[in-house]
Amino acid sequence: MAAVQDGPMELDTEKETKPEILSDGTSKLSGNTASGTLSSSPLTAGGAPKQEDQQTLIAVLQFLRRNKLSESVEILRREAGLEDQEDSQTLDGSGGGKGDRDGGEANSLLSRVSITSAAAPQSTLTPITVKRANEQLDVSVVLSAYSQQGDPSLYQVYYSGLKNFIESVLDCHRAELSQLFYPLFVHMYLELVYNNHENEAKAFFEKFGGDQECYYQDDLRVLCGLTKKEHLKGNEVLLDFRTSRFVLRISRDSYQLLKRHLQERHNNQIWNIIQEHLYIDIFDGMPRSKSQIDSMSGSFAGEARREVNKVKVFHGLLKEPEIEVPLDDEEDEAENEEGKPKKKKTKKDSMGSKSKKQDPNAPQQNRIPLPELKDSDKLDKIMYMKESTKRIRLGPENLPSICFYSFLNAYQGLTAVDFTDDSSLLAGGFADSTVRIWSVTPKKLRKVKSAGELNLIDKESDDVLERIMDEKTASESKILCGHSGPVYSVSFSPDRNYLLSSSEDGTVRLWSLQTFTCLVGYKGHNYPVWDTHFSPFGYYFVSGGHDRVARLWATDHYQPLRIFAGHLADVTCTRFHPNSNYVATGSTDRTIRLWDVLNGNCVRIFTGHKGPVHSLAFSPNGKFLASGSTDGRVLLWDIGHGLMIGELKGHTDTIYALKFSRDGEILASGSMDNTVRLWDSTKAFDDVETDDFTAATGHIHLPDNSQELLLGTYHSKSTPVTHLHFTRRNLLLAAGGYSSQ
Amino acid sequence: MAEERRQKLCSVILPTESMKAMAESVGVGSLQEDSCLALSEEVSYRIKEIAQDALKFMHHGKRRKLTTGDIDHALKLKNVEPLYGFQSQEFIPFRFASGGGRELHFYEEKEVDLSDIINTPLPRVPLDVSLKAHWLSIDGVQPAIPENPPPVPKEQQKTDSTEPLKAVKPGQEEEGSIQTKGQGASSAEVKGKEKMRMKPRSTHELSVEQQLYYKEITEACVGSCEAKRAVCVCVCSQGPKFKEFCLALFIRCNIMNSKYTTKHLLFPLHELIPAVVTCIVSKQLCLRPDVDNHWALRDFAARLMAQSCKTFSTTTNNIQSRITKTFTKALLDDKTQWTTRYGCIAGLAELGHDVIKTLIIPRLSVEGARIKAVMDGPVVSNIDKIGADHVQSLLLKHCASVVAKTRPLPDMVDQYKVDYGYLGTMLCSHVVKARAQAAFQAQTVNRTTLTITQPRPTLSVSQSGLSTSSGSRAPSIIKVPSSLTLMSTRPGTPTQPSPPATKYIVMATSAGAASTQQVITLSSSQSGSPVTSTVPSTPTSLQPLVKLESGNTGAVSGSRPLQKYIVVSLPSSSSSLENKSSSVLPSSTSPISMESAVKLERSESPAANTQSH
C-alpha cells in the first residue's frame, strides 16, 4: 500500500498551474495575472526524473523568458537545477520547506493524515497531468498539426465521398462507421479554419453541419462561431478537442472495411486525420447496434477507452467501527445521552454483525488515513443506528413521503441547498453571496459565547456544553457573509460542526457552525468553484470548478492534497464515494470520472450523457452511481464493471438533485422541470443481465423500461427542485426556491 | 430545419454600422469599411463566446433566464472588466433612435439629481428569504393542498371544462374495465351515474322521538322565522346523527341560500355535492314522477350546484369541470332517462352562458331529434312525453338568450332549422322574442332603476307533503315587511298533472328605504296555499343579486304612489319561454290574483314588521 504523500502533490499543483498560465498567456488576455500567480507561488516544481518533465520545464523557462520574467527564470533555473540535477536535491528543497510548514500547523487532525509524509520520494505522478502538460506545451505547436493540408476545395468532396461510402455499406457496419462523421467533420472544419480558408470552412459547415447527431448541437454552436485562425488560439474547447484524441470504438470488421475503402480511393486527407486525431479502439466481435452506440456516445471526446475502465475499484464499504449499542435504548435514553453507553448490556446490531464480514470489494480500512472517531461521533453513530431501526422499508409498494421545503422570496437567487445527515439543519447558498442556515427542528441556532464570557464559565460543571452557548443569539436562521460572488454549493460536515461553501469568487470557505464565522478560505481554483462536497468521514473534501480540475483538500491544509485533472471542460459536480476512497466528478464535457483518492488516478470514465452532468449520487452500498444531466436523463452505472446499466427517461429539464434512499431501493431525482420523480432502483439494477461478454466489451443492451421503473412523479408549484435528502428514517426531503412567474 | 437555424447562427454578425457608431462614440471619426468588417466579426465572435460562458453561470445559478449578472461573471472569467450600470434583472431599457439613415439602439443614461434621490422616501425593504415546508407527497400520494399544484394541469383543466367530451372518453373506457373487474363501487364519485344506479336507496328507521324531532326541524327550516332557522342550522351542523336526512331536508327546503352555505358551511363539500347531484340527475325523485313537480327541485338543485361551483371551485378541487364532466357524460349517453337528461341540461345551463354555448348548443340538433322521436312517434308512455316536453322547454329557455347574444342577425327560420334541427323553428321564434325583449329592456332600463335577475337562491318546492299539510299556515308565513301573497284562484287537486308553477318576484321600492325581494310561487297543485319565500335584504346585500338580465320587467303600480312594485315572472322550472317573454303579466291565472294579492298584502304588512331581519 502506498502512503499518502505531500511532496508529490506539490508537484501536481505546479504542473497543473502551468498549463493554465500558458494558455492564458498566449491568449493575450491575462498575461499579468498569470505572471502574478506564478511569482507569488513558491516554485517547487521539477525533480521528477522523467524526460517529459524536463521538457515541461524548458517550456516554462521559454515562456518566462518571452514574458521577460527574468527573476522567475533565475529562480526556476536554480530550483530545478536544470537538466541533469538529481531529484533528491529538489526534493530536499521543496520537501524541506513543506515539512517546516507542516510542523508549524501540526495538530491532531494532520497527524492522522500525514504520518508518513516524511517518507521517501514517490515518483508516481498522475499520468494524465503529465500528458496534458505536454500536449499544451505551446498552442502553436498544437495547432501546427493542422498546417499540412490538401486542396481546401476538395474537403467537401472528401467528406461526401466518405459519407456516400458509409451510407452504402451494410447496415451492421453503417452505425459503427457513422461515428466517424462528427470527429472528422470537426477536424476538417478546424483545418480549414486554421489555414485561413474561411469561406470554404463556412460552406463546409453549412453543408454538413446539419448531418451531425443532435447531441452535438452545443459543440457545433461553439464551432460555428469560430471562423478565424485567431479564434482558435483562445478557445480552450477546441484546443481540447484537438489535443485529446477522439475515441471511437469500432469492430474489427468495420474498421477493415473503412481502411480498405480509404486506401482504394487514396483518400489520404481523411486517413491522416484518422491516424493523427482519432483513437480507434478496435474490438473483435459483432458490430454494435445504433442504439448501443448512441447510449455510449455523446461525450466531448468520444467514448472512454476500454482499458481505462479495467482498473480494479474497491467499491465495497468500509467496516463499520464497532460501537456497542445499548440494548435498552427506550428506557435508558437519558443515560445514553450522558455518554455512558458502555455500562449497559450491549447487543450486536444487525448492521454491526453484517459489517463483521469483510466485503471482498472493500478497500483496506487504512487505505487512506481517516480521522479517528471522537466521542461525539460515536454518540452520533448510536443515534443513527437507533434511527435506522425505525426506518421505513421502501419499495415500489411503499413509497416515501416527501416533505418539500420552499424558499420564499428568494427571487430566483437560491443556488444550492444541503441538509445535515440527521436532517436537523438546512443550508442554502444564494446568488447574493450569502449562505443561510436554518434549523428545521425546534432547536434554535446559538453561537458560542465570546472568549471573555467563556472565561467566566465553570468548566467543571456538567452542563458546560450547554453553558458555553449564548442564549441571546438563539434564532431560527443565521446568515454567513464572506463570499464575493454567488455561492454555487454548500456541504455540511458529517459531524455538523462545519459547513463548506464554494463560490464564483474562486474560493471554498469553511464555516464553523459553533461560532457562525468563516474559519478558512481555500484558494486554489482561480475560477468559479461549481461544487464542493465533504467526505462521509469528514476531514477531506473535494471541489471542482471552471478550471477543469477537481481538487481534494483536507480541512487543515490550505493547499490541495490531490488535483484530479483530466476533464476537458468545467467540473460541475463532485461526490465522495461512501467509503471515501474515491471521488466522482461530473463535467461539462459530458463525462463522469471516478478518481482514486490514494494516488490521484482516474479509474473510471463514463460516457453516455448528452449534456453537462449536474448531479451525481452513489448508491449506499457503493456499487452503483447515478448521474443526471441537462438532457433530463438519469444514467445508472456499475462501478465495479465500469458499465452503464440503466437509463431513466422522464424529466424534461436539467436534473439538479439525485439521491438514493437509505437502503438504496428508491432513487429520487429532482429537476428544473419542477418535479420530483421516484425510480425503482432495485429493479433497475436487477434487470441488467451482465454476462461475461458484455462485461468484457462493455456493450450493453439497455432495456427501455423507464416507464416501468418510474414509481411516481410529484409536481411542485413552479419550484425547481434543487436538493433531495433522505432522512435516517427514509422520509424524503426536497428543497427549492419558489419562483413566482 | 436545424440546418437552417445553424446557418443563421453562423452568419449572424453585428452590422458594420454598429461598429461605426461605436467608433464614433469613442472619438474615432472615420473607420474604413474593411476595418469595420474585421472588427464586427471579431466582436461577434467574442460576444458569442461570452454568451456561452454566461450560460454556464445561468445553469449553475439554477435559473432559466440569463441575467446581466451572468454576463458580468463571464466577462470576469475572461479578465475583462464587467459592465457597470446594468443591474436590472428583468428589463434592459434599450432605446431606439434613427437619423441620418442610421438606426441605433442605445442605453439611455439619464442625469439624476442627487437631491431627488435623497429626498424620495426609501422604497419598501424586500421581504426576507423564508422557508416553508409542506407535504409534496404522503406515502406516494400527492395531497390536494394549495401548496401543491392542482392535480390536473391548468391547460388540461381548461380543455376539460370546455371540451369534457374529449376527456370523458378515456374515462369511460377506464370505467368499463373497472366494472368488468367488479370494482365499480370504488370508482370515484365523479363517475357517479353508474355508482348511483348501484347504490341501493337507503332507508332510515326512525324512532318516534326522532320522527318528532325531524318534523320540528323541518318545520323550523321551512318556516320563515329566521331566528328559528338559525338555531336549526346550528343544531343540525352539530349533531351528526341526522346528518344524512338533514342534508336531504336542507336541499328540499329552501334554506340553502348563499348566506348559509358561506356562513356555516354545514357540510363538507364532498358530502353536499353528491346529494345535490342526486337531486339534479336522479331518475326518480318522488313517488309519482308523472304527477309531482320534481322538475322544480331539479332546477333548484342545479342552481345550488352552480352557486357552489362559483363559490368553492378552485384549481385544486376543480369542482366545476368535474361536475361538467359528469353532466356531459350523462347527457351523451343514449339510454339516459328524460328526467336525468333534464337534470343534466339544467345543471349545465346554470353554470353560465359559456357553458351553454360550448356544451349545450352544439347538442341542440341531437336533442331535438330525440324530442321529436318522442313527440311525433307512437305514444310510449306519458312519463316520457312529459319529460321530453320539459327538456324541450328547458333547452329553449336557456339557449334562446345565448343564441340571441351570439348569433348575428337576421334570424331566418330555415337557417335555424339547418343549424339546430327540430328545435330550430321554436328556437328561432324564441330568439326573436329574446331580442325584442332585450331591445325593449334597453329602453326600460333607462326608466326603471331596479332590475332583477333570477335570484339564485330563491325557489320553493311545492310538492312536499309538509307544505300541503300546513295549508292553513299560509297567512302566518308572511311576516316580512311589505311582502305579498298571491293567491291562486284555482285550487288544484294533487291527482291532476300539475301545470308548471309560476313564480313571481316582487320588488317593493319605497323611496330609498330598504327594499325587499321576494319570490312567490304559484302552484296549482297545492290546495290553494302558495309557498312563499322571502328574501328580505338591505340594498347592500341585495346588490349582488340584482343584475340586469334578459328577463322581463314590468311594473304594476300598487295602490299607493309611494311604493312601486315590479312584478317579474320568473321562468320557473317548467314555464315556457313564451310565457316568459310574451307579456308583462305572463301567467294566464295571474292577472286577477295579482291585484288581489297586492291588496291583501297591503292590509297585512304592518303587522308583519316585527320579524324583520
UniProtKB/TrEMBL annotation, chain A:
Subcellular locations according to the entry: Nucleus
Domain TFIID subunit TAF5 NTD2: residue ranges: 150-278
Bias type Acidic residues, positions: 324-336
Disordered, as annotated region: 1-50, 80-106, 324-373
MF term (GO), any: RNA polymerase II general transcription initiation factor activity
First and last residue of the signal peptide: none
UniProt entry keywords in alphabetical sequence: Nucleus, Repeat, Transcription, Transcription regulation, WD repeat
Database matches in InterPro entries: LisH (IPR006594), TFIID_NTD2 (IPR007582), TFIID_NTD2_sf (IPR037264), WD40/YVTN_repeat-like_dom_sf (IPR015943), WD40_PAC1 (IPR020472), WD40_repeat_CS (IPR019775), WD40_repeat_dom_sf (IPR036322), WD40_rpt (IPR001680)
WD repeat boundaries on the chain: 407-448, 480-515, 522-553, 564-605, 606-639, 648-680
Biased composition (Polar residues): 24-43
CC annotations in GO: transcription factor TFIID complex
Biased composition (Basic and acidic residues): 12-21, 348-359
GO terms classed as biological process: transcription initiation at RNA polymerase II promoter
Family annotation (SUPFAM superfamilies): Taf5 N-terminal domain-like, WD40 repeat-like
Family to which the UniProt record says this protein belongs: Belongs to the WD repeat TAF5 family.
Listed name of the protein: Transcription initiation factor TFIID subunit 5
Protein's gene: LOC109068832
Automatic annotation (TrEMBL), chain B:
Any Pfam family matching the protein: TAF
Keyword NADP included in the entry's annotation: no
Keywords from the named record: Nucleus, Transcription, Transcription regulation
Compositionally biased intervals (Basic and acidic residues): 190-202
Primary localization class, coarse: nucleus
Transcription in keyword set: yes
Gene Ontology MF: a single term: transcription coactivator activity
Biased composition (Low complexity): 524-544, 572-593
Biased composition, class Polar residues, residue ranges: 177-186
Cross-referenced SUPFAM superfamilies: Histone-fold (SSF47113)
Region of interest (Disordered), residue spans: 142-202, 524-545, 572-613
GO cellular-component term (any): SLIK (SAGA-like) complex
PANTHER family xrefs: TRANSCRIPTION INITIATION FACTOR TFIID SUBUNIT 6
Family: Belongs to the TAF6 family.
The protein's name: Transcription initiation factor TFIID subunit 6
